[in-house]
Amino acid sequence: VQLVESGGGLVQPGGSLRLSCAASGFTFSTYVMTWYRQPPGKERELVAEIGSAAGSTNYADSVKGRFTISRDNAKNTVYLQMNSLKPEDTAVYYCSARASIRRYWGQGTQVTVSS
C-alpha cells in the first residue's frame, strides 16, 4: 500500500497550490479519502474529506470556500485545490485512506505560505 503526496511548496499569501495523492496497493474507489494537516507545534487536523463515490465532501471551517477536494477513481488519485492561501495554512499536509477498520497514511508534503 502506498499513498504519495505531491504538489507542496512555498507560496505567497493569496496564492494557490494543488496537492495530489497517488494511491496504489488497495481498491482506491472503495475508500474514503481525507486530507489532514499538521501545523508546526500543533496537533494534526482534518482539512477535507471525500466519500468513496465522490458524492459527499466535508471541510474544516477554516478552509471552507477556499479549498476543494476531488478524486479521480480512474487514476487512483485524490486532489486538494487550495486557493487564497494564508500564512496559517502553513503545515505538513497528509493524505489518508479509510475503509472500515483499515486506514493508510502518506508521508506528507510541506506547504509554506509566506511572503
What does this structure look like?
The protein is an all-beta fold and 115 residues long. The mean pLDDT is 96. Strands 2, 4, 5, 6, 9, 10 and 11 form a 7-stranded mixed beta sheet that branches. Strands 1-3-8-7 form a 4-stranded antiparallel beta sheet, with no helix packed on it. The protein has no helices and 11 strands. It is globular, with a radius of gyration of 13 Å. Helices cover 0% and strands 54% of the residues. The termini are far apart.
Can I get a quick summary?
This protein is mainly β.
Give the overall form. Answer: globular
Order of helices and strands: EEEEEEEEEEE
Sequence stretches where pLDDT stays below 50 over 5 or more residues: none
Mean pLDDT: 96
The count of DSSP E runs of length 2 or more, i.e. the number of strands, is: 11
- The percent range for strand residues is over 45%
Query: Biggest sheet: strands, sense, closure?
Result: 7 strands, mixed
* C-alpha-based Rg, rounded: 13 Å
The count of helical stretches stands at 0
The assigned structural class equals mainly beta
Considering DSSP H and I runs of 4 or more, what fraction of the residues is helical? Answer: under 10%
This entry's quaternary arrangement is single chain
What distance lies between the first and last C-alpha atoms, to the nearest angstrom? Answer: 37 Å
